[in-house]
Design brief:
Helix content is 14%, strand content 39%. The protein has seven helices and 20 strands. Pfam families: MPI_cupin_dom, PMI_typeI_cat.
């Protein structure tokens, strides 16, 4: 089959979680299976959870198969040189009806050594937050392994962690090692390295329906934690019809686009682009005048070979690529 360059969407991979709810259905129109659905994996090549194309001539084909056959066309020349035919990012929506566990992720070196995996640098874009909703990010002030373990043993860990009230549109950039937790009442979009490695350090002493606690990773986390204070929240401009940069790191760049009308794009073919629609609806119009329609809750992979296109509509988009 010849490569056809068009905007790709994938079948969501939904995950039941002890802390999940129903907002992925009520707010994003996802076809969830339980009232405790916590995650919708939108684009993934994590083993066992590989995305399958939902639209166009490639419908029914896995992303891994496409990457094996058309790596440069999809990933782009620069991304291919760096990652081969691996897709380096994972895109999710999360709905926290209850607090998530307090956790962190190892860096690339630790993740490679222990799990043969990438680390997990990530960012959050808050799509909706109930009144009074908070997240936890890092320590209130510089800490240490001994202080952390003492509070963990005394079940007072939360007292030394930094709680931040959140609202729609807030952005947080979480480098590896940063202790964090999404609080109850928050729904967000998450952009991260392709990794499913999480060190869970406290789970609010809760148990599942069978009375079992979830596994904790206290020892593994000790040398993975960043004990310094972190400044995770990112401020950004919201100029309409402009690519407002909000995060730039070696793993990904994210721009926020308040779309109101039309924007023309001329890409260089070095990286794929992903568009996450957090509000409203829009079209992608290709240089062959084909028109593709998307709405809030859609995550769209634009192959690197699709270099010229137009966005038309009214809404808020996250634009993600690797530079």
């Amino acid at each position: 089959m010849n490569f056809e360059s068009y905007p790709l969407v994938f079948k969501p991979i939904v995950k039941d979680r002890i802390w999940g709810g129903e907002k992925l259905r009520t707010l994003l129109n996802k076809d969830i299976l339980t009232p405790t659905t916590g995650e919708s994996w939108e684009i993934s090549t994590v083993p066992g959870d590989v995305s399958v194309v939902a639209n166009g001539n490639f419908a029914g084909i896995s992303l891994n198969e496409l990457l094996q056959n058309y790596p440069k066309e999809i990933l782009g020349s620069t991304v291919y040189e760096r990652f081969g035919s691996e897709f380096p990012l994972l895109f999710k929506f999360l709905d926290a009806r209850e607090d998530l566990s307090i956790q962190l992720h190892p860096n690339d070196a630790l993740a490679k050594e222990r799990h043969n995996s990438f680390g997990k640098t990530e960012m959050w874009y808050v799509m909706q937050a109930d009144e009074g909703a908070e997240i936890i990010v890092g320590f209130k002030k510089k800490s240490s392994a001994s202080e952390y373990l003492q509070h963990l043993e005394q079940k007072s860990l939360v007292s030394i962690l930094n709680k931040i009230p959140v609202q729609q549109g807030d952005v947080f950039f979480l480098e590896t090692g940063t202790i964090h937790a999404i609080g109850a009442g928050v729904m967000l979009a998450e952009i991260q390295q392709t990794s499913d490695i999480t060190y869970r350090i406290y789970d609010w002493d809760r148990v599942d329906a069978q009375g079992n606690s979830r596994e904790l990773h206290i020892e593994q986390a000790l040398d993975a934690i960043t004990y310094d204070e972190v400044a995770a929240q990112r401020k950004y401009e919201s100029k309409p019809n402009t690519r407002n940069q909000v995060v730039h790191c070696s793993y990904f760049t994210t721009n926020i686009i308040p779309l109101d009308g039309k924007m023309n794009f001329n890409k260089d073919g070095e990286s794929f682009t992903v568009l996450v629609c957090t509000e409203g609806e829009f079209y992608v119009v290709t240089d062959s005048f084909l028109k593709y329609s998307f709405k809030k809750g859609d995550t769209v992979l634009l192959p690197a070979a699709l270099t010229d296109f137009e966005l038309v509509g009214k809404g808020t988009l996250l634009e993600i690529f690797i530079s």
